[in-house]
Amino acid sequence: MPAAATTTVIVIGSGGREHALGWKLAQSPRVKKVYFAPGNGGTFENVDIKQNEIEKLVEFAKRQDKGDCLAVVGPEESLSLGIADAFAKEGLRLFGPKKQAAMLETSKVFAKEFMQKAGIPTAAFATFSDAQKAKDYIAGQNKPLVVKADGLAAGKGVIMCDSTQQAIEAVDKIMIAKEFGAAGGKVVIEERLVGEEASFIALCDGKTIMPLASSQDHKRVFDGDRGPNTGGMGAYSPAPVVDKALHEKIVKRVMEPVLKEMNARGTPFTGFLYAGIMVDEKTGEPYVLEFNTRMGDPECQPIMMRMKSDLYEYIDAAVDGRLGSMPPIEWHDRTAVCVIMASRGYPGAYKKGEVIEGLGDFGPDTTVFHAGTAKDAQGRIVTNGGRVLGVTATGKDARCAIENAYSAVRKIRWGENGHYYRTDIARRARP
């Protein structure tokens, strides 16, 4: 039997993903209130508890409806610190994997070795904890490589290299200069795959996979997929590259083996499972670039805009281990596009505290999800991060969704030439 209705939800995190999750969860008739901890300038009912203050989050959850509430984790940092373990210890309900299972994202070395053991298709790789040995290995390779920091680096610890020299410089950047801090204690060096990327995200309850709509992210900072990697400069859903046949391959060859191997290790996976997929340009076969153990950002924004079903009902079922009894999720037959408006300089240095102008009601097809924003002493919305806004719009097809999103983007501004956005989001999906 389903658990009694949960009326209070705590969304943990402060980005656009968290805003979109809370926005969707608040639409459920079973949800009375949504708190954001800590939230941002655009979210409602913010709680002054940071995402890494695990004990405070536990205590706050205990005070809600005598502990009868549901926490939904957005960022990987909270999962890496064991928030799911801490909530479980107190008998509190939370959607997200425990620390050991979250290593699928928090350690790229763990993830690659996990995929190898589970027979999940991925690029050939080698791992190193010694910088010189890593560089010696690179010198013996005669193909494009990708160098990855082992730990969490906010989506920026993956460096695509076109030459041996670039790969050696990447090792120096990660392991010697420590530009990503402790995340660079080890590196993964892997073959650079060529093809089209897609994001495949599913709800999991340890036994059952419930796929969400397909999506595609744009990681590089500049148009034409140039420049350094970021946390994501935009996304759209659905991704045409993921047809029915490819969808089934990803479920059977990637997602289900993850649950099987996690269960074999005694660490069942409950939460959002995200596979970054490369569809090989020659064979059309899917290979896993990376796993995330939480909802993608900015993929979350267009996915939530298209979701017709009640998200709360599915998360509630997953937490209780009854996802297998739920019908497939229903989706609006529309395309959704999210354009990230970032502070100029991101992913490097950028200004904060600039007043954002042009925010308003853009109509039913467009929602502006806040990420790096805050409210100043006068109550004005100001910039407070690199990725500031996720302007998300739907349309009858990709062309209409793109036009709706960019129409809103052009009305928003801050500072003197203070913002930046890519102008080619979702072009691959355009008819």
UniProtKB/TrEMBL annotation:
EC number(s) given by UniProt: 6.3.4.13
Coiled coil feature spans: none
Pfam families referenced in this protein's UniProt entry, alphabetically: GARS_A, GARS_C, GARS_N
Keyword Lyase: no
Residue ranges of the TM segments: none
GO biological process: 'de novo' IMP biosynthetic process; purine nucleobase biosynthetic process
InterPro entries: ATP-grasp, ATP_grasp_subdomain_1, PreATP-grasp_dom_sf, PRibGlycinamid_synth_ATP-grasp, PRibGlycinamide_synth, PRibGlycinamide_synth_C-dom, PRibGlycinamide_synth_C_sf, PRibGlycinamide_synth_N
Similarity comment: Belongs to the GARS family.
Name the UniProt record assigns to this protein: Phosphoribosylamine--glycine ligase
Species whose genome carries this gene: Candidatus Nitrososphaera evergladensis SR1
Lineage: Archaea, Nitrososphaerota, Nitrososphaeria, Nitrososphaerales, Nitrososphaeraceae
